[in-house]
From TrEMBL:
Domain spans labelled FAD/NAD(P)-binding: 375-633
Cofactors: [4Fe-4S] cluster; FMN
Lineage: unclassified sequences, metagenomes, ecological metagenomes
Xref: Gene3D superfamilies: Aldolase class I, FAD/NAD(P)-binding domain, NAD(P)-binding Rossmann-like Domain
Protein name from the UniProt record: NADH:flavin oxidoreductase/NADH oxidase N-terminal domain-containing protein
Alphabetical list of Pfam families matching this protein: Oxidored_FMN (PF00724), Pyr_redox_2 (PF07992)
GO molecular function term, any single one: FMN binding
Length: 675
């Protein structure tokens, strides 16, 4: 693959960045005292070493009432030294630096929070104070002072925050701006606050440093601004001399998914393309762009001038250099799982990354330091935890053999990527396949591990990554149904069984919900066929649309807990529920199944007996437990070698397990083998 555009320098008025790869602002929750501390600097220095063109730091609060208690602050001169150190260390490796000036208005949830009007925020459920005209000037002045601090610290620019529903949006939106003075009412009036802000900040620092604006490409909030108004706003910003426009998606309160895996890669590039027409300033595109080849395509299509890789650069700080050196096989692509980043932020924890154990631990691990005591390592099982252990152990100089009883690697991931919106999970398998190939790791497929087999390999260390096994709930009639009308979710997803017209999924956890969505899609018109039929007008468009949108199965989820999706992260659960409803999936919660009989399932609901008849297929998405069978027998044999467990098979770990735990344990175990 030749990158014609991605590595072209980009000029942002007086700042030239070395390529088109931008790391957008991401609140990392690294700094309890709100200073730019060493952890933050180490994190970004690594990304600068990795070849990114521009790093946008932040959001950095310009006022305490408009910011979060653990967000970076630039509201006082005392913060300048941290920023200075940041700029020096990041510049050393070639990336340019911009501070995002953050004011969340009614989204801050802080005491004394302010907004354009005293309208209750749909995010914080609280009513802000309306800014008087004098106070508007103070807020604007605080932005200008912050911009001067950024300049003083040696930053190359500042970014104003006109996206995600923050203060600028609160002025722009008729939903939140109910003012009757010159800052409210008409579109021109609602634009007054951001246009004055641009002028003020540019007057104060614009001769020396870049002043950009992040915009919501569409608020995706009923009654608020759409992509149409967004293009108008951008044109005004351009006319006011803004140096770049960084286009993202909707407000935080939107019901339209912005960041989870279910959003297809590059889904929101059209928002940048929509704004770019007739603009002088370069336009960046953001959200779900995780692949340099995709980024190159966006640039070649002239949909945008710069590409934001947010989570993509958390997952792999060296993505730019690896792309440049054509080592695409070695890039850890962001899965948009949100397990370590967004879900952590929403629960008050620091950002981590499922794919990259080193993210947030920069400088603490050095895979270039090879082991002085190479060991023979046998890994049993090739799920994500085992594969990560194999990768890290091999890089460190150990000799690894993976034993996998199936004909392919990946373990549970092979079923996990099948449901709609989960395709990105395949990246895990692709990545580790490439690692095995390029690093010459000994992989023995179709090889069931046993005590004898392991002993014959004479290992120094054995790492068990044997995952889970399914358990059959103790429900009358289940044995008779298993294999005739009732199947395990993973077996159905991997295509081993026919799924009939009327389907009940037993269990409404993540697996149950994803399986139900997959079933609801069965029988839908394939996209390519829908296009073909449309081109030749073979059937009416509405019919094509409805046949394409959903399949021909009737799906019901039965869950014993009061809610479904309780093991999903906060950033995915609501969207998954919304998606299920749109697909017509019925859910029955708080139901205790009492019997399976032929095509009928009986259950108790609120003390009453209920049943559903005429079910063709039951799918079991309940009951898994750590698979420790082989581990137990090897331990019982009193082996001479060291033994570890990683991931789901580790029944010592009682906490909630997920793929991030498995991969991180794989890394830690392999890294510490000789320690
Ligand atoms: C943990 C986290 C924190 C974020 N914080 C901010 C922020 O403070 N300001 C902002 O404009 N965007 C913020 N974003 C949005 C990102 O800048 C980016 O638009 C988003 O992650 C989508 O891009 P991606 O798919 O490349 O990650 C944040 C995203 C994440 C994951």
């Amino acid at each position: 693959m030749k990158f014609v555009k991605l590595f072209e320098p980009l000029k942002l008025r007086n700042t030239e960045i070395r390529n088109r790869i931008i790391m957008p602002a991401m609140a990392l929750n690294f700094s309890p005292d709100r200073t730019v501390n060493d952890k933050t600097i180490d994190f970004y220095e690594e990304r600068s070493k990795g070849g990114v063109g521009l790093i946008i730091l932040g959001g950095c609060g310009v006022e305490d009432r408009g910011s979060g208690p653990t967000m970076l602050s630039i509201a006082d001169d005392k913060y300048i030294p941290g920023y200075t150190k940041f700029a020096e260390r990041v510049h050393k490796h070639g990336a340019k630096t911009i501070v995002q000036l953050y004011h969340a208005g009614a989204y801050s949830g802080m005491p004394g929070m302010v907004s354009s009007s005293a309208v209750m925020s749909n995010l914080t459920r609280r009513v802000p104070e309306e800014l008087s005209i004098e106070e508007i000037k103070i807020v604007q002045e605080n932005h200008a002072l912050a911009a001067e601090r950024a300049r003083k610290a040696g930053f190359d620019g500042v970014e104003l925050l006109g996206s995600a529903g923050y203060l600028i949006n609160q002025f722009l939106s008729p939903n939140t701006n109910k003012r009757t003075d010159e800052y409210g009412g008409s579109l021109e009036n609602r634009l007054r606050y951001p246009l004055e802000l641009i002028k003020l900040v540019k007057d104060r620092v614009g001769k020396d440093i870049t002043v950009g604006m992040r915009v919501a490409g569409d608020d995706f909030v009923p009654g608020s601004n759409t992509y149409k108004e967004s293009a108008v706003f951008a044109k005004h910003y351009d006319d006011a001399g803004i140096d770049y426009i960084n286009v993202t998606g909707g407000w935080h309160e939107t019901r339209i998914p912005q960041l989870p895996m279910m959003v297809p890669p590059a889904a929101y590039v059209y928002l940048a393309d929509n704004i770019k027409e007739n603009l002088n300033a370069p336009v960046f595109s953001a959200n779900r762009i995780n692949d340099p080849i995709l980024a190159e395509r966006i640039l070649r299509n002239e949909w945008a001038d710069g590409i934001c890789f947010g989570r993509g650069l958390i997952a792999d700080p060296y993505l730019p250099n690896k792309a440049k050196e054509n080592k695409l096989w070695d890039i850890k692509k962001c899965l948009a799982c949100n397990q370590g980043c967004f879900d952590h932020i929403f629960t008050g924890r620091s950002v981590e990354c499922l794919r990259n154990y080193q993210a947030s631990r920069e400088g603490k691990f050095d895979l270039d330091q090879k082991t002085k005591t190479p060991m023979k390592v046998v890994i049993v099982g090739s799920g994500p935890g085992g594969l990560e252990a194999a990768r890290v152990a091999t890089i460190l100089g150990h000799k690894v053999t993976i034993l996998e009883k199936k004909e392919k690697i990946g373990g549970q991931v092979n079923a996990a990527f099948i449901p709609p919106g989960r395709n990105e999970m395949q990246e895990i398998i692709k990545y580790y396949k490439a690692q095995i190939k390029h690093r010459n790791i000994d992989l023995q497929l179709n090889t069931e591990a046993s005590l004898e087999k392991i002993n014959a390999l004479e290992p120094d260390v054995v790492i068990f990554a044997t995952g889970i096994k399914f358990t059959i709930p103790d429900i009358p009639g289940i044995d008779g149904s298993l294999g005739s009308t009732l199947y395990f979710a993973d077996d159905v997803l991997t295509g081993d069984y026919h799924v009939g017209k009327n389907v009940v999924v037993v269990g409404g956890s993540a697996t149950g919900m994803e399986t139900a969505l997959w079933v609801a899609d069965l029988g839908a018109l394939d996209s390519e066929i829908a296009r073909f039929i449309s081109i030749y007008d073979l059937i009416p468009r509405e019919e094509i649309f409805s046949k394409w949108l959903r399949g021909n199965r009737n799906v019901t989820i039965i869950e014993k807990l009061p809610k479904i999706g309780l093991n999903l992260g906060r950033t995915s659960r609501g969207f998954m529920i919304g998606h299920s409803m749109k697909m017509g999936i019925k859910t029955i919660t708080g139901a205790n199944i009492t019997k399976f009989e032929g095509k009928t399932v009986e259950f108790e609901l609120e003390g009453e007996k209920n049943s559903i008849d005429n079910i063709d297929t039951f799918i079991l998405a309940t009951g898994v437990q750590p698979n420790t069978d082989l581990y137990d027998s090897v331990m019982a044999s009193n082996p001479s070698y060291k033994i570890y467990r990683v991931g789901d098979c580790n029944d010592k770990k009682k906490d909630k397990r997920n793929m991030m735990d498995a991969i991180h344990e794989g890394y830690q175990t392999a890294y510490n083998l000789d320690k």
